[in-house]
Amino acid sequence: MRSTCWRRRCTRGSTSAFVSYELGRPVIEKAGVAHKVDFRVGDGLAVLDGMLDDAGGGGAFDFAYADADKLQYGGYHERLLRLVRVGGTIAYDNTLWGGSVAMPRDTPGSSEYDRLVRDYMLGFNAAVAADDRVEACVLPVADGVTLCRRVK
Ligand SMILES: C[S@@+](CC[C@H](N)C(=O)[O-])C[C@H]1O[C@@H](n2cnc3c(N)ncnc32)[C@H](O)[C@@H]1O
Q1: What residue's CA is closest to ligand 1, atom 8?
Q2: Which of 10, 52, 95, 139 could cross-link to 144 by cystine, CB 3.0-4.6 Å?
Q3: Average per-residue pLDDT in the chain?
Q4: Which domain of life is it from (predicted)?
């Protein structure tokens, strides 16, 4: 929800439109800015594929924020790299998964899903760090946010 509010602030007073499909819709509607949003609901990968079809070659977006299926971030990354222009930014939420990426895998209290996402995020962050199409950093705020600036 925090991300929704942040983006709303960014677009306040502007005429720019952006695409979103998330839980924040009631907040966007209450703020009276729903007319600026092209809501699309569905499986994230399928929605992004549809947006790529619509974009006809991609590069149409300045910024993307991913916060849906944590185990699909790799697939989102490939698609978002085509949708976001060179110089644009992609943000991935929850990439430190409660700090578990820096803890032993069998930390007491972690669920099987926690371990699954922990392992996935370790691989995802390593892959993004080695990806020469982006400049990447992980912000240690809240649950971790990985920022990628598309450079090629
Ligand atoms: C942590 S919430 C996102 C909250 C959102 N950032 C906001 O500010 O309201 C994760 C969302 O991803 C959605 N989700 C989970 N798996 C998905 C998938 N495969 N495709 C699309 N959305 C998915 C969930 O339904 C949930 O709404």
Answers
A1: 1
A2: 95
A3: 86
A4: Eukaryota
